[in-house]
Specification:
There is one protein chain. Helix content is 36%, strand content 18%. By secondary structure, it is an alpha+beta fold.
Amino acid sequence: MRVVIARFPFDLTKSGVLESMKGIKPEEVVGESVIIGRRVYPVKQVGQVVTRQDRRDFSVGEVVRAMTQLGFTCRGLPEVAAPAPALSPLQQASAMLGTPVAV
């Protein structure tokens, strides 16, 4: 399948991407990711390996679009749970004593 990444056309196939990523150790995922085989790779790492270009030359969206078209599963940014509201000193002391205080 022909895809355009960083203004350059690439003829990519699912088997070709699998072969390119074989033996590549996944880096730590801190943003969007692609599942290739049984491993989860950062999108920028996959783009760099597949296109042989510097990571600054292409966007995450271009690689995600290409990998999705090829049938790979892409994950967005991990959702961060909202932090729990801080307890007042009175509520914290009451919780330590096991006596609930009305909020």
